[in-house]
Design a protein that fits this description.
Helices cover 32% and strands 29% of the residues. The chain is α+β, with helices and mostly antiparallel strands. The N and C termini lie far apart (35 Å).
């Protein structure tokens, strides 16, 4: 087992609707999705954000695209037009979540590294 950050296993995109932040987590492989679907819990997410989330956290599986949708209620101090937060629309929330740490076995980490290599080979402009 090895301790890694979520960014080694998945990608994230985040946004907002009023005082609600939403984060999409896209796993790099199906096996990684299965692992994340079991281990990314509302409690773990709320603890990771250390008091920034004043409301509930919900985690929804989206298995057909190996993803999780995470809803953070009362997370943006009232929303874009009401807050003094630097990140009024929660665009950095996904990046912040990618810093969450997990203990994973080496096989999952190797799958993630292989997927990263495939992506670089496919999309690199060198």
């Amino acid at each position: 087992m090895k301790k890694v950050r979520l960014n080694e296993l998945a990608f994230a995109r985040s946004g907002d609707k009023g005082d609600v932040s939403n984060i999409g987590i896209m796993a790099k492989t199906k096996d990684i999705y299965d692992f994340l679907a079991k281990t990314v819990t509302p409690e773990k997410v709320k603890k990771h954000f250390k008091g920034m989330i004043k409301g509930d956290v919900e985690v929804y599986p989206v298995p057909n695209i190996d993803s999780l949708e995470i809803i953070l209620r009362r997370a943006l101090s009232g929303g874009a037009t009401c807050t003094l937060r630097f990140d009024q629309t929660g665009k950095s929330m996904g990046q912040a979540l990618l810093r969450m740490e997990f203990e994973v076995d080496e096989e999952l980490l190797e799958q993630a590294k292989k997927k990263d290599k495939e992506i670089l080979e496919t999309y690199s402009v060198v």
